[in-house]
Amino acid sequence: MAAEPRVQFYLGANAPSGFYSLYDQLIDPDQAQDVMILKGGPGCGKSSLMRKVGAAMEEQGLAVEYIQCSGDPDSLDAVIIPSLATAIVDGTAPHG
């Protein structure tokens, strides 16, 4: 049986008119069970933590959506675990 493809997408992008954000559509607040917002400077481990949580959830058989950073391909802006109605989000500008 083939593995499910990893879901990865962007919720923001730099446009001629400035930063365009769809972060308000990350997760429905009325349905969310848990939303964790990480704040910290560059290189402090926000993306690393989100990757570790995502990998642990995948090991448990749960689908995980990875929100890529449009400004840094090595960075994550968020992970969403739809079946748990949970998100972990980078809360530093321009995301927060």
Automatic annotation (TrEMBL):
Gene3D superfamilies in the record, alphabetically? P-loop containing nucleotide triphosphate hydrolases (3.40.50.300)
Question: InterPro entries in the record, alphabetically?
Answer: P-loop_NTPase
What name appears for this protein in its UniProt entry?
ATPase dynein-related AAA domain-containing protein
Print the organism lineage.
Answer: Bacteria, Bacillati, Bacillota, Clostridia, Eubacteriales
